[in-house]
Model the fold of this input.
Amino acid sequence: MSVLIDNRQDKIEVDSNMEALVEKVVQKALEIEVEDDYEVSISFVDNQEIKELNKQYRGKDIPTDVLSFPLMEFEETEVNYNNADEFVQEDRLLGDIVISLEKTQEQASDYGHSFERELSFLVVHGILHLLGMDHEDEQQEKEMLQKQDNILQLLNITR
Done:
C-alpha cells in the first residue's frame, strides 16, 4: 500500500505529522475494506481549486470538502477485488482523492472537533468512494456512515 500526497495549497501547513496521519488512515481503511495492496493519490487543495473541480466534474459551482476519482471499478456485490492474475504490479492505483484543507478547517470548527478528526473523516469518506460506495439514498448513507465511524473508532479518532 502506498499513499502519494500532493500539497497544492498554501493556506494550511502540511507537515510530516499530517502526512503520517493520512497514511495511517488510508492504511486502516484499506485493511478493513479490501485485502489487496493499492496506491492512493491524495491532493490537498484550497477552496478555489476544489470549487473549480466540483464545477467541472459534478456541475456544482461551490467549494466542497472532498472529491474522489476512482480508477478501478468495483461491482456492487463485490466486497473485495482480488484477482492477482489480472495485474502484474504489486500496488494498483485505486484512484485520486482531492481534499480542500480550507474546507476541512471550516468544518472542524463548525462541527466542534479537531482538524485531525475532520481530515481523517474526509480521507475515509474518499477511500470508500474509491471502493465504489455512495450515499445517494438513505440506506447507502447509513451504511457508509457506519463504515466511516467503525474505521475511525478502530484508529481511536473521535469527535
